Task: structure prediction
Amino acid sequence: MSTLDPLPCEASADEVEAGNAVIDVGRLHELRTLAAGDDDDVYVMLADLFLVELTQEVAALRDAAVRRDVAAVVEGAHRLRGAASNLGATALTALFLELEELGPSGQLIGRDAFARVDAEHQRYREAVAALRGGSATQ
Amino acid sequence: MSEDDPRVMIVDDVDVNIAILTRMLAAFGVTTVASTSDPRRAVALVQSFQPDLVLLDLHMPSMTGLEVLAALGTVVSEDDYLPVIMLTADESRAARETALSVGAHDFVSKPFDRSEVELRIRNLLRTRALYTRLQRHTESLHAQVRVQQDYERRQAEERQQTIARIRAVIDGSGLLMHFQPIFSLRDGRLLGVEALARFLPEPRRTPDVWFADATSVGLGVELELAAVRAALSELPSLPAASYLSINLSAEAVLDPATMQLLTSAAPERLVVELTEHAAVEDYPVLVRALDKIRGAGVRLAVDDAGAGFASLRHILRLRPDIIKFDLELTRGIDGDPARRALAYALGMFAAEMSAVVVAEGVETAGELAVLRDIGADAAQGFYLGRPHRPPVRDVYVAAAAPKDAFTHGAPAVRR
Result:
């Protein structure tokens, strides 16, 4: 399939506007242009790398919240936001920005916030899996 | 750095950011890349990898980008221009200003934009390349200046050594006068001797080198006068009937000390031999100085006749008492009609001017015979006697000149 074809994970313009798209399609295309000769899908490869870090970093973030280490929470959320934005993970980027901005105000990151992180983490993982499946069918 | 193959280093604690940047760099041809996700390793990596540009995450947990920048400042030479681009996630204006103030050169925000990354990196690499070229140019200029300074210092040292060497001779050591006999070609009588300086200091140098060195450090006249003084001091040990011919440059003739020196001895026994190869610019001044000296009884000889135009002009302008044929004219005169003709003509000219002809550089019996035939008055040369230490006596002459050196079996010398 061509990269111009709609993908299951791709956000509509409305979704991007609303900040809850899973993967920004523009970013997806941009990163795919970086393909070297033997890459199946550069984006998927990068996303897999990100998913590994995401799992570790979110666990660390959760620990920091339990320790009520506000600085560590802000730090971790900031780092995750940078990485998520680099991959066009729009919803995750927005969510980590929210956490980053909550931190300095002293508000604790509650269970519901982590539930939302877990949910978006999962949606992103599925979207990447769908891309992988799409690639595999080519 | 190689401008074709720039070395870029990435420091970011998030691996996926490094992976994206690495691919973006590769996409515009930058493939020599080193990276670390541990900012504490950044300094060591800069030292080992020697990057041309560093991409440095501003926000890292174990060590911030600002701390890395500060640490880099201690290992990167002040003369080096190592551009650092900070990687940021929309940091505050204050944070950016702080980064700039501690040495960051530019920023790239996350998400990294491929074109922006390329443009910013290319700009800074270009700046570094220009800086490096400028620095090389500066170093090359410095090297040239050093070479020039070394050269000038060596010149100055050599000059000082030359001055010391010549000064020592002037002050009385290492100068020994030799005397070459000059014989009449009419009766074989010893007419005079030419004083010739010999220098003893090692390494041995010929007299012309000594005088040229002395002139080059402004001691030419002093050295000439030292030689004159040494020659005059030996007058008592020279045959009383002979004259003493001493060499002087025009500059030395013009020196007031010369007049004093020449008139203090026995001026009527002295001949000044003008050894001036350069054209004299102001003859009237030279003529005036010579007139004074000649007025005291000193005779004037012009050296090197037949070897160049300068000597002919000297003859015309100075009207010498003695004209000396250059060895260039004397050499092989017995086998060369042209030399013979020129010598003859010069001899006629000298006679018209009431000047005496002395041929220099006579080395063979054949040359001597021709010179005698064309009417030269006197001669000197290895054939007749080498320059020698006193005593210069008739006995000495007899030993030097072959028995039949002079005309028709007449006694070569008076005993």
Q: What stands out?
A: Residues 1-9 of chain A have pLDDT under 50 and may be disordered.
